[in-house]
Amino acid sequence: MENEILMDDKNVLVMKLLHYFIIDKNYNPIILQGVENEIWLENLEEDYKVVRIVSSYIHNDEQFNFDMFKTKRIVKKIKKKTLSFNINTLSIFLDLGENVSQDIHAIPNVECVKINTESDFKKSDVIKKEFPDLTKKLKYSEEGIALFAKITSDINEHNKQDAKKINAIFKNKFPMITYWLIAVNVIIYVIPILFGQYNDLINNYSVWGPAIREGQYYRLLTGIFLHGGILHLLFNCYALYVIGSQVENFLGRIKFAIIYLVAGISGALFSVIFGGNFASIGASGAIFGLMGALVYFGYHYRVYLGTVIKSQIIPLIVLNLLLGFCMPGIDNFAHIGGLIGGTLMSIALGVKDKSSWFERMNGWIITIIFLAFSIYMAFFYVI
Question: Per-residue confidence at 307, pLDDT binned at 50, 70, 90?
């Protein structure tokens, strides 16, 4: 008798659905205040990014319309938080009354499914298309308290493993490449000044279009390690420390180094294309590329970083670009080129366990086209 814990069919079905969406489809619960008798789950990688399991009794059209109004308001908040342009929502109603005469399938971006028993899932075209294994996964040998114990244990273990993965991603690691880059920038600035040769260094190694077109291609790389003064150096090193350490922490050392160099060279190419005969120096193009990489990473982890990206990183990028257009002596074209190059390279390299093969392949194609076009413009088409 102990194994026959009192649970009605609806509660059993809720538990089974939770197990399926969390364990098999990697959805995560959404914590909402003031919401009763329904469970919200999200997985931004799925076609239906939000799934609702509604166990409350919906008696008539008025209650159903209010439920849809409430749903749209909540989804709007989720879109805002997660920087999503569109969120398709699947609402699974487990107790939808016969008095609901409205067409439940006519709601934009909200697909509603009426379920009375487990067999009803086989009748739903949406379920058969998007979750074809659902009905099979709802079959358990356990019953009663044994079923409750299994589902609870599986979900707890899944959440524990997810927490370990997230902690591993966001755990602070020693940003060795970032510190090396800062050290290189400082050494290249300080030692030539001590020997009175810094002006010669700038003349011979800065990003300068006419010299690069004559064959001094190394300037595309060397120019990003030169600075025009102590304040310029300190500002870029501080920005590199703050932003670079985060990008290196999130993406890893190799990806970080590749993004930094590609962004720096992309910025140098834009400087050659749009800068005329003016020389350009500085690591800011590469740093803008790191900011683009941070936005791209944050988008994939927007459940955790959406607010930071929206309220801090993007405004920082926009503000610095605006200052670059308003203040003299700033090579804003290098900033723009670095931002584009770094973002595209981030897409090509991808985010571990998040970026699809298709997304990375498209990233490589677009990055190669962008770099090839920039090289052509820099060397063969003088604006």
Answer: confident
> What CATH number did the domain enclosing 268 receive?
1.20.1540.10
Residues 219 and 79 grouped into a single domain: no
Residues 131 and 215 in one domain: no
Please write the tens of the pLDDT for every residue from 342-365: 999 999 999 988 888 999 999 999
β-strands 38-42, 28-29: how paired? antiparallel
Euclidean distance between CA atoms 14 and 142, whole angstroms: 15
* DSSP line for 180-243: HHHHHHHHHHHHHHHTT-HHHHHHHHSB-HHHHHTT-TTHHHHGGG--SSHHHHHHHHHHIIII
If asked whether residues 154 and 250 sit together in one domain, one would say no
Sequence-separated (6 or more) residues with CB below 8 Å from residue 355: 300, 347, 363
The residues carrying an active-site annotation are: 284, 335
Full-model pTM: 0.81
* Phi, psi of 180, rounded to the nearest 5 degrees: -65, -45
Cβ atoms of 287 and 243 closer than 8 Å: yes
Domain containing residue 359: 173-380
Three-state DSSP class for residue 38? strand
Strand partners, 88: 48
CB 226 within 8 A of CB 206: yes
Residue type, 337: G
Degrees (nearest 5) of the Cα angle 198, 204, 209?
130
3-state SS, residue 31: coil
Per-residue pLDDT for 304 more than 60? yes
Query: For residue 141, which phi and psi values (nearest 5 degrees)?
Result: -80, -25
Q: Return the number of other C-beta atoms located less than 10 Å from residue 204's C-beta.
A: 14
Beta bridge partners of 89: 50, 110
How are strands ordered across the β-sheet holding 28-29? 28-29, 38-42, 48-54, 88-93, 110-114
Report which DSSP code applies to 309: I
Kind and range of the H or E run holding 111: strand 110-114
